[in-house]
Write a structure and sequence with these properties.
This protein is mostly beta strands. It has 5 domains: about 30-120, Immunoglobulin-like, CATH 2.60.40.10; about 170-275, Immunoglobulins (Immunoglobulin-like, Sandwich), CATH 2.60.40.10; about 290-365, Immunoglobulin-like (Sandwich), CATH 2.60.40.10; about 380-470, Immunoglobulin-like (Sandwich); about 475-570. Helix content is about 5%, strand content about 50%. β24 (about 345-355) and β25 (about 355-365) form a beta hairpin.
Length: about 575
């Protein structure tokens, strides 16, 4: 009889386990690795939710849900999904208590049971202003009675009566079991998150409300849980972390909503069945059923190769042993370990209680160190806006060297504006820091820029454009040019006129009582430098004339008298 009873119990347990497996088949499984439930944040912080979803047919997307609203959806990197999808999703924290859920979908459209945590976001407290110290007044002279203080003028009281007690009402309606429907099977000691969804059917906004344990089995050490702030008509997901009792069979607990004025709303129940064990002896070490791993997280989800990252884990309970792979081995709990992964690495924390095993995983993506691409070269000459007056219209451009790994060469791009910017030349692979441009088309605007290329880091940043232009017309030299030095003993002034591209140059030298007139010499202008000699009364004087600035308002003349050279500057 005893054998038959044991056989019936064993078959019943196997049947319940089979039902649980069938119920779970066909949909993904998802776990939240961080943050732990009950974590606190401040308003404005980014809450990073690290989760891992698994499904044999492939996880195609993961949703992050806050207080019932989807705030982020991340698709799988591959269209067909992947068996394990680990990622970090962020949400900007707002004040209050919030329930955060993660849902995963597979390639067949099946959705996982949600994994959830509850977080409390605190308001940042503004610093009180520093009070201004009160300086006591000097005492009155002897024999003088100080005047009585004048009472402050009080503002008239409003005629409206003071506000009375709030007239809103607190009522609620149960919507659904988001997780752990009644009758869910759990192994002894297995941790789970129970989430109820309720609707605020009253007229009060739930702020600072609680869910409190009312009767039955709490299955948690906390008899209260915070309720998210909920407006009338809205729904709230309320999460309580629980642990299945160690004894097999049915277990149930009842919870109620509580406002500052008392309990209200329907009774919210949790009802589970603890299965497993088969009546045998518990494993050595005092554990029974599936171990509990409070948390397993990392200080960063990705690091640059060569940089450390810290693994952190909470208490591991109901277990004979706990270890981490990748060469770490057995661990004390809670604890932490600094690791230096060099490739994409998944760390698995494994806890064992006899044949029962629980695992948590953390994946670290290792990024290649950034390559220092060459900076943009600084341009040397010509200066911004420079006007070339030489013919043929050629120019030499120069820049400064840059520091970069490998062999560095340079590239230059020159454009011409003939109504719109067009490419004149793009020259790559220049070994030096200058480039001689061939003839430019007409008296037009141009611009140029330079960038470097490293044999190991590739192309670098391009410099800003720098403008230039050509002007080879003779008329820009016409005018009466006066020596900047009014007391000069050399060339005092030069009068220039033009007939087309022919320049008529008429200089004067310092003489007493009047300046010496060298006479006029005419010559075709074909670009700078413009060299002219043979003045009728100028003897052996030879003048080399150039305009000295981009605006053409300064003229430079170098006078060679056959033996000596003198340089003069003129203005109109």
């Amino acid at each position: 009889m005893e054998l038959r009873t044991r056989l019936v119990v064993t078959l019943s347990v196997l049947w319940l386990a089979l039902l649980a497996a069938c119920a779970a088949a066909g949909k993904p499984n998802v776990v939240i690795m961080s943050p732990p439930s009950g974590s606190q944040y401040f308003e404005g912080e980014d809450i990073a939710v690290q989760s891992s979803a698994t499904d044999a047919t492939g996880v195609v997307r993961v949703e992050l849900v806050v207080d019932g609203a989807v705030v982020r959806v991340d698709p799988s990197p591959t269209a067909q999904g992947q068996p394990t999808f680990t990622l970090i999703q962020t949400w900007k924290a707002t004040g209050g208590v919030h329930t955060i859920l993660v849902r995963a979908y597979n390639a067949s459209g099946a959705v996982s049971d949600p994994a959830g945590v509850s977080v409390n976001v605190l308001q940042r407290v503004a610093q009180a202003p520093t009070p201004t110290p009160t300086i006591p007044s000097a005492p009155p002279p002897p024999g003088i009675t100080p005047p009585s203080p004048v009472p402050p003028t009080m503002a008239p009281s409003p005629t409206s009566p003071p506000p009375g007690p709030s007239s809103c009402t607190n009522t609620a309606a149960f919507v659904q079991d988001v997780t752990v429907p009644d009758g869910t099977n759990w192994a002894p000691g297995q941790a789970f998150n129970k989430i109820w969804q309720v609707r605020n059917t009253g007229t009060c906004t739930w702020s600072g409300y609680q869910l409190v344990f009312a009767s039955g089995e709490a299955m948690t050490t906390n008899s209260t849980a915070a309720v998210p702030s909920t407006a009338p008509g809205a729904t709230a997901d309320i999460l309580v972390p629980m642990t299945a009792p160690s004894s097999t069979g049915a277990h149930a607990g009842q919870w109620r909503l509580k406002s500052p004025s008392g309990l209200f709303g329907p009774t919210l129940s949790v009802s589970i069945v603890v299965v497993g064990g088969g009546g045998g002896s518990p494993p050595s070490g005092g554990c029974s059923g599936t171990p509990n791993i409070a948390s397993f997280t990392s200080s960063a989800a990705s690091v640059t190769s060569g940089n450390p990252v810290t693994l952190n884990w909470g208490a591991v309970t109901n277990a004979e042993s706990a270890e981490i792979d990748q060469g770490i081995g057995g661990i004390e709990t809670p604890g932490s370990r600094v690791v230096n992964p060099t490739v994409y690495t998944t760390y698995t924390l494994t806890a064992r209680c006899g044949a029962n095993v629980a695992t948590r995983q953390v994946t670290i993506a290792v990024l290649a160190p950034p390559v220092a691409v060459p900076p943009a070269p600084s341009l040397s000459s010509p200066a911004e806006g420079w006007v070339f007056r030489n013919f043929p219209r050629t120019a030499t451009f120069s820049w400064n060297t840059v520091s970069a790994p490998g062999t560095v060469t340079y590239n230059i791009e020159i454009q011409i504006n003939t109504g719109s910017w067009q490419n004149k030349v793009t020259q790559t692979g220049i070994a030096g820091t200058n480039y001689a441009m061939s003839a430019f088309s007409g008296d037009n605007q141009g611009r140029w820029r330079v960038w470097a290329t490293s044999s190991t880091a590739g192309e670098g940043a391009k410099s800003d454009w720098r403008g230039f232009s050509f002007n080879t017309g003779a008329s820009q030299y016409a005018g009466t040019w006066l020596n900047n030095d009014s007391g000069t003993s050399g060339v005092t002034r030069i009068i220039i006129s033009n007939s087309g591209q022919t320049l008529n140059v008429h200089p004067y030298g310092k003489c007493t009582p009047t300046d010496c007139n060298w006479g006029t010499k005419s010559q075709t202008f074909s670009g700078e430098p413009f060299v002219i000699s043979g003045f009728p009364s100028g003897g052996s004087h030879q003048l080399t004339i150039t305009l000295n600035n981009a605006a053409g308002t300064s003229l430079k003349a170098v006078d060679f008298n056959g033996t000596s050279t003198f340089t003069y500057y003129f203005h109109k």
